[in-house]
Design goal:
This protein is an all-beta fold. 1% of the residues lie in helices and 50% in strands. Keywords: Signal.
């Protein structure tokens, strides 16, 4: 018996059962129920709810952990429905003549709709703002079940909608709705009683009163289970024969056989999202199909459990199968998602641009993959393809699911490879990334034009850029000595020969550099700095001489020996700058230093010095003003020597 194969889980009313131990996947989780009246999946709370009208029990289980609880004292509980916003769960409690409303998060009863004492609600469905219920056992309606509705906005109850006795079902009819057809209600006489004929009615429920749009009376056979396609256009049903039938809701009397290879159909479930079909057949077998296909996608066996109900997880991959063996029931979670991780490995040291590299990887699934040879989509993201470039699809090895691929990245910098497993069947998608540092080529960039020039002159420099990929722009910067920032001279494309020239007005020593910003294949580079050394402007004048005449071939100032000459210098000013006066005397045919004096400049660049002391006659003298880089108080100009001034003393 099933009980021998399962680990029993005791569930008490309003008692939480923590961590129910799972049994083998093929035998499912035991359920302490005596019948299956209806099943509902609440994906938002990861719950499955099973009603047992025979014992008056509502079982609530977390379908991932299988922990849960149950409510008792619900005589004849049957149909279950979830509100459109997922906040309420409705339960039809036939023998209480009521529809009970639960808070979906807490599963605490919040209210109930009381029906007539002659109405026994057994099935539920929500369409628009109305909750429809199928009911039977009205003594005044001897031909069977009918259906009514609760206006969820006003609370008004309309208990009877079948317009004539021939429209009544054999019992409380099954009510079907679809997410893609909110204004359609399909009513099916689901029963194993051959007198039911499996009659079907289709209603437009967009108004206050349902309007019959199609029907089949005296249908060709019973209906044991039925479901709607997501768009509400087709009815799928099983009647115990081989396969299933499919009928358009516009003409439910016209049934077409499908899935004929699978006999003994007992249950059918349609995924409300993508239309996948699940078929329970041959007692304990379950087969699934992609929407529109009769090729089996997956098969499962419940090992002796007769399939009673099949439901898909909304928005997920799981398929829930309620099985029965004798008087025992179990919840089987089929198509359990397989989650995988992808490991990737690539070069860990920088590689040259354009060189071939190999990326290797492996997919590690949490359970066997439903395919022998997985494939992967590969995308390369780099500076040239910031949105990603698709590379050829990669197939893994069937044995260990390893894979590898080679590529020659054209761009430098960080190159990222994204590997995606798209998922197949119950296997969920997976993604991984690995990055490789690709070294860009270094272009040749030179700069010519270094010189020593006079203050205020203009110098020209020429930069030359070698081959690059897409960027032919270079910037030439001039950085004068001192606190002033560098100045951009030019930032433009080089000419056809790779050249770019720039002119610099010189006032100080100036370092000039050319810069290439780089492109996707060539790295940024700067030229060596070219120095444009700049002399200061300097002049020296003398005063108090009594005459100027040529002596020794040069103009010479004549002073009386009692006069102290005055020398005035004008030099390019700079904060804290001083000039140096170098005095020399012609002694024994050779100019020999006689005195050196440093004189601070004014802010206007002037300095005056008076030569005092005893002055010897009959000798020739000279003096010059000098700027010495460093010794003159700063380093912003190039060392500059002024012209000599010649003088002599007489009596």
């Amino acid at each position: 018996m099933l009980r021998a194969a399962l680990t029993a889980v005791a569930l008490a009313a309003t008692t939480l059962v923590a961590g129910a131990a799972p049994a083998a996947a093929t035998t499912g989780q035991p359920l302490e129920i005596s019948a299956v009246s209806d099943v509902l999946v609440d994906a938002a709370h990861r719950r499955i709810l099973i009603s047992d009208g025979k014992s008056g029990t509502l079982v609530v289980r977390n379908y991932e952990t299988f922990s849960g609880f149950q409510w008792t004292g619900l005589p004849g509980i049957g149909g279950l429905a979830l509100s459109g916003d997922g906040k309420k769960i409705y339960a039809a409690v036939a023998d209480a003549h009521a529809i009970v409303v639960y808070d979906a998060a807490t599963m605490i009863e919040s209210s109930r709709y009381a029906l007539s004492d002659v109405a026994f609600p057994r099935t539920l469905a929500i369409a628009g703002d109305k909750l429809y219920f199928g009911w039977d056992k009205d003594p005044s309606v001897t031909t069977g079940g009918v259906f009514g509705a609760v206006d969820l906005t006003t609370g008004a109850i309309k208990p009877y909608f079948f317009p004539s006795p021939d429209s009544r079902g054999h019992g409380a009819p099954r009510l079907l709705t679809a997410p893609g057809a909110p204004d359609k209600l399909v009513v099916v006489d689901v029963s194993s009683d051959a007198t039911s004929h499996g009659n079907t009615w289709v209603y437009d429920v967009s108004g206050d009163t349902p309007v019959e749009t199609a029907a089949t009376r005296e249908a060709p056979g019973i209906v044991l289970d039925a479901a709607l396609s997501p768009d509400g256009s087709k009815i799928y049903g099983v009647d115990g024969s081989c396969g299933a039938f499919v009928a358009d809701t516009a003409n439910p009397a016209q049934r077409a056989q499908a899935y004929g290879a699978y006999c003994g159909g007992a249950a059918v479930g349609i995924d409300p999202g993508d239309g996948r079909v699940a078929l329970g057949y041959d007692g304990d077998d379950v087969v699934t199909f992609a929407a529109g296909s009769e090729a089996a996608a997956d098969r499962d066996n419940l090992e002796g459990q007769a399939v009673r109900r099949l439901l898909w997880e909304p928005g997920g991959k799981r398929l829930f199968a309620l099985g029965q063996m004798g008087g025992e029931y179990a919840l089987n979670v089929l198509n359990e998602p397989v989650f995988s991780t992808i490991s990737l490995a690539g070069p860990t040291t920088p590689v040259a641009r354009g060189a071939q590299i190999t990326i290797s990887g492996r997919i590690i699934p949490s359970a066997p993959l439903p395919v022998q040879v997985p494939y992967f989509d590969v995308t390369r993201t780099d500076a040239e393809s910031p949105s990603g470039k698709a590379l050829p699809r990669v197939f893994g090895n069937s044995g260990d699911f390893t894979f590898s691929f080679s590529d020659s990245p054209p761009a430098g910098g960080t190159v990222t490879y994204t590997v995606r497993f798209p998922g197949v069947g119950r296997a969920e998608p997976a993604v991984a990334k690995v990055s490789v540092n690709v070294v860009r080529n270094t272009p040749v960039l030179t700069l010519k034009g270094g010189t020593v020039a006079a203050y205020g002159s203009t110098a020209t420099v020429t930069a030359r850029l070698g081959p690059t990929y897409s960027n032919r722009m270079i910037a030439i910067w001039a950085d004068p000595a001192g606190a002033e920032p560098a100045k951009l001279l030019r930032n433009t494309k080089v000419d056809a020969n790779g050249n770019l020239t720039a002119a610099v007005k010189l006032t100080r020593n100036t370092g000039v550099v050319a810069k290439f910003a780089g492109d996707t294949r060539y790295a940024p580079v700067s030229s060596p700095v070219q120095m444009l050394y700049t002399r200061v402007a300097v002049s020296l004048a003398n005063a108090k001489q009594y005459k100027t005449a040529t002596l020794g071939g040069v103009p010479t100032a004549y002073y009386r020996k009692t006069v102290h000459p005055v020398f005035t210098t004008v030099m390019t000013p700079y904060p804290k700058r001083k000039e140096r006066l170098q005095f020399e005397v012609l002694w024994k045919g050779k100019w020999t230093a006689s005195r050196t004096v440093d004189v601070p400049l004014t802010s206007a660049g002037k300095a005056s010095y008076t030569l005092t002391g005893a002055h010897s006659t009959g000798l020739r003298y000279r003096v010059r003003a000098v700027y010495l880089n460093g010794a003159s108080g700063d380093t912003v100009n190039y060392t500059t020597y002024g012209a000599y001034r010649y003088y002599t003393f007489t009596n």
